[in-house]
Write a structure and sequence with these properties.
This protein is an alpha+beta fold and 356 residues long. Helices cover 30% and strands 14% of the residues. Strand 2 and strand 3 form a beta hairpin. The longest helix has 14 residues.
């Protein structure tokens, strides 16, 4: 870089072709002879990844592609127009979305959230950050970024689930950011932690429930009230999916379709599943009861029977209980003949076991 020991930059230079910097050690008598050109190239690539400078490719149509705090792909590395550009002379047209995740860029996430104006200022070309160089620190300029590039990177980071976007009552995570939502009111936050399905039951989230019934929208509303911010729908949806798969909840007959987007959440009616054990007693830091519920196909029941001996061996000293629920369904109701035949099969396993 300028000011370094090799004097590779002329006065006023703000960019140099990578091929020239790599070739200089072979062509200039005053420089150390480096037979391994790949080692020089690797140094430049590492400097780009560290954020010391920007690498830039100029396309045939004069548009530019930039790399900063990321490693260029092989196509860019082989491009003869690849340049090293000093931070104060660069303009980022591409931003690696991973760099916007919490605690990646230095000093960007000094607060619990990043307001859109703060992000614009960070990439204004005037923002310096202090970098620890191992025993000493150096102020590094953050290169300026094109605002459209910032919007694209933020939108991609939200869709990827790396950051959570709030703007008023709009809460977005793992979904597209509509045009116009990245403005002076937008805020970026770390994605909320996953919500265990067991924390959604009436005893834990009473504000969402009326008796043993609620809706997906009421669940989200209660979580939002507890959190103090509109909760992202994807986090609620994943928690409810877990609750359905564990048999904690079931949809009512008048429920809307599931899964659904946020617009369909008010129509998704649910209730505590019959026979669901809601209370899990806690002793110290560990649950005294662990329950695994799932729905098994007929062939998986056979597989389970094959490993029962392993289950018994793995749970020596514990109280192991296996509870099986069998449902028989058909439009208009199961036939009397089918019920009788199933009960006959059940009787071969356990006396008194029958469909009700």
């Amino acid at each position: 870089l300028p000011g370094g020991p090799y004097d590779l930059w002329g006065a006023g230079d703000t960019a140099r072709f990578v091929k020239d910097l790599v070739g200089a050690f072979a062509a200039t008598a005053s420089l150390p002879k480096m037979l391994n050109r790949e080692a020089i190239l690797e140094t430049l690539l590492q400097g780009c990844e560290a954020g010391d400078f920007v690498l830039r490719v100029t396309r045939a149509d004069k548009s530019q592609r930039t790399f900063w705090r990321t490693r260029p792909d092989e196509t860019a590395i082989q491009d003869p127009t690849l340049e090293v550009v000093l931070p104060d002379a660069a303009l980022l047209t591409d931003i690696e979305l991973g760099t916007l995740a919490p605690n990646v860029l230095p000093e960007l996430w000094n607060k619990q959230q990043v307001d859109w104006p703060d992000l614009i200022n960070y990439f204004s070309g005037k923002h310096l950050v202090s970098i620890d160089k191992g025993g000493w620190s150096e102020d590094i300029l953050i290169p300026p970024a094109d605002e459209d590039a910032l919007k694209t990177a933020v939108g991609d980071a939200v869709k990827k689930g790396l950051v959570w976007l709030l703007n008023g009552t709009v809460s977005l995570l793992e979904e597209e950011v509509p045009a116009g939502f990245l403005n002076e009111h937008a805020q970026l936050l770390p994605p909320p932690a996953a919500i265990p399905a067991s924390s959604l039951v009436p005893d834990q989230l009473s504000a969402a429930w009326s008796g043993d019934a609620t809706s997906a929208d009421h669940i989200r509303g209660a979580l939002s009230a507890n959190f103090g911010k509109p909760f992202p729908w994807v986090t609620v949806r994943k928690s409810l999916e877990q609750g359905f798969s564990l048999g904690l909840f079931e949809r009512t007959l008048d429920s809307g379709p599931w899964p659904c987007d946020l617009g369909g959440a008010p129509a998704v009616r649910l209730r505590v599943a019959k026979g669901c054990v809601e209370d899990i007693h806690v002793a110290g830091d560990y649950d005294t009861v662990k329950v695994a519920k799932t729905e098994l196909q007929a062939h998986e029941i056979v597989d389970l029977a094959d490993v029962v001996d392993e289950l018994i061996e793995a749970t020596v000293g514990h109280d192991l209980r296996l509870t099986l629920t069998v449902e028989l369904n058909r439009d208009g109701g199961p036939s009397a003949e089918a019920i009788l035949r199933v009960d006959e099969v059940f009787a071969k396993v356990k006396a008194g076991w029958a469909l009700h």
